[in-house]
């Protein structure tokens, strides 16, 4: 789609003039200088924020297991998606898809759109997020705070086609996170999240983790981490946790690359109703399906024991982490496990931390909370039947 759009002639739609990118039409010196400066600005942001904090979750010393939380909520836009947005912008700039006259469009109602709006403002070009009309006011406000414009559709599955149509109409570029996430990030290193984790663990008791646990939305993070661990020849295994209704776990388990569920995830940022092009099953060692009630209970439990506010996807991660810690203990394995705080809980006061919302969703958190409390007190893992 991007190569086809690159051959279109100059057009003026939505008040934006976009030069042709036909191979015979070389970019002007002014455009090349602008791209160089835009890349400098984006890379300067990475220099300030890429090495996020790695927190230790205290566990009984006799367990012989350390659990670390890489806190992605401290990025300037408050989430793991800051890394993805940065990579997508560098990818588009280096490919010649983004110039000083490009309008950027994305299909996202969540943290990716927030981060992309930030980078669009940083380099001074327009950004439009295509999202369902039912998107929470909090997310809309965050996107608009960074200068983004929100364009609404009535049905979530219509976002992709509408984003592509709008980009064509405006002579712009569709960022398309679900296609480009796995290829936009330099998985060999360049201070990606996997390299950052390995470097930060260098002085710890178990510097090579037994497991890294992440969720999948686009699949870009799991692809980057899985590839990097193989490239560095590390024994670390990758576990991907998946919420209710997502297509990723059943597709991984069955090998069906076209698996669809048609169900939207209640755990924002992870889970998809269809297999996305950026999801790479071959780099994953284990997938763990996680009930939504367990995700919410674990996020709340994290706050209860550490005071840290985190979103539901962090709770999904932690439910998987505790299962793997229990497995390590039963097998007599000593070592470390790493997972992510994907974003802060302040974005979810109206949902995961709202008892009324939880009740309206029909979620019973009590048995999952009891499982977590019992495990951390006794080391025994006994999830609800």
UniProtKB/TrEMBL annotation:
Record's catalysed reaction(s): L-cysteine + H2O = hydrogen sulfide + pyruvate + NH4(+) + H(+)
EC class (word): lyase
Record protein name field: L-cysteine desulfhydrase Cds1
Gene name in the database record: cds1
Modified positions (N6-(pyridoxal phosphate)lysine) in chain numbering: 81
Organism name: Pseudonocardia bannensis
A GO MF term: lyase activity
Subcellular localization, as worded in the UniProt entry: Cytoplasm
Broad class of the protein's primary localization: cytoplasm
Chain positions covered by the region annotation Disordered: 1-30
Cofactor(s) the protein needs: pyridoxal 5'-phosphate
